[in-house]
Structure formats: C-alpha cells, structure tokens
Design a protein that fits this description.
6 helices, 5-stranded parallel sheet, Hypothetical Protein Ychn, Chain: A, alpha/beta, about 200 residues
C-alpha cells in the first residue's frame, strides 16, 4: 500500500462517522410546530340568525366582500373531514352551519340560498343513526341534531353511497334527515352541470 492510499483510507475512515450522523439527522422527521390555539377575546359577540344551536357568526357589517341579498347562491358542499373525537359535532358540519348563518346575517332570503351538502370520506359516520353509531363508538351520534337543523333550514343532505359501502354501512344505518346518493363524485358532476359552485369542508 502506498503512502497516498494509506492517507486516503485514514481520511475516509475518519469521515464515515460524520457522514453517518448527517444521514441520520436527515432521516429524522422534524417535530411539528405547536399550532396556536384560536380563542375569542372576552366579550366577543356571536349570533345565530338561521341555525340556532350551531355555526355561530361574529357580525362584521364593516368587512369587505359581503353577500348580496339580491343574488341567487347555489353551492354544493363536500363534507369530507372527520374527527377522532366521536363525542363531538364535526367541525366541518359546524362550518356548514356557519355558512348558512352568514348568508342569513347578510339578509339573503332563504329562497335565494340553494345549498346541497354531500357527506363522504371520513365524515360518513356522522350520518349514522344512534343505534348504528353506538355499535362503532359506544355513544349516541352527536351530529344528528345539527343535521336536522340544517335540513330544517333548507340544506339538502346526501351521503355518498360508495362511502357507505366502503364503511360497511347500509341505507338503513343512515339517520332520517339524510338521503343516500350514488356517489359524491357523480354528485359534484351533476350539480356542477346545474351551475352549483363547489366548496369543501
């Protein structure tokens, strides 16, 4: 072995631990930054113009982009996000109720508001009857009340038939205020063709 080869070997051996440490640090998943908790200031005003028990809104008559009371609004809402807390109302349904309340706050007449909500994906179990929900989560379904109030406010409620099949549910497992559709995918196509805007919650 020449002196040059010996020096290269020594250098390589000394660099190996450093290289291994660098690779290990690259492979380590960085810790997620803690998310700031959203908390209203004391005394913040909240109102419920349409959906009385859910989706409260904070009045802002000074804010930009206010809904036009004379316009016609057609929206198909993709309710897809679930929750690990099966004892609480889904945040996605609360936001749907807030959408209805915001239009009500803006004085848009109910006959100018056409909202279709398609419940699918992780949110599918929110449509289950109490008996079915208890089989899975050992508690009553906390979402049935908000779904009833949404329907009473004129929101059309569908659950994706494909999602039911994937979750091992049948039509009779679904609560009384929800209609089973062929698929969320085809619902978006059909209602998009009818001029409905798409929104995901």
């Amino acid at each position: 072995m020449t002196l040059w080869n010996a020096r290269v070997r020594v250098l390589a051996c000394s660099l190996l631990p450093i290289l291994a440490m660098s690779l290990a640090s690259c492979a380590t998943t960085p810790k997620a930054e803690p998310r700031a908790e959203m908390r209203p200031l004391p005394g913040t005003v909240w109102i419920n113009p349409v959906i009385k028990d859910f989706g409260e809104v904070h009045p802002r008559p000074d804010a930009a982009v206010q809904p036009d009371p004379n316009a016609e609004y057609k929206v198909i809402v993709d309710v897809v996000h679930g929750s690990d807390d099966h004892t609480a109302v889904l945040g996605s349904l609360q936001r749907l109720a807030r959408t209805v309340n915001l239009l009500g706050y803006a004085k848009v007449p109910s006959n100018h508001v056409h909202i279709v909500a398609v419940i699918e994906g992780q949110a599918t179990f929110a449509t289950a009857s109490n008996a079915t929900y208890r089989k899975f989560f050992k508690v009553d379904n906390p979402n049935l009340k908000i779904l009833h109030e949404l329907k009473q406010a004129g929101v059309e409620l569908f659950v994706c038939g494909q999602a039911l099949a994937e979750g091992g549910l049948v039509d009779t497992d679904v609560g009384p205020d929800i209609t089973v559709s062929l698929s969320a995918l085809s619902d978006f196509v059909v209602y998009g063709h009818l001029g409905y805007s798409y929104m995901q919650l």
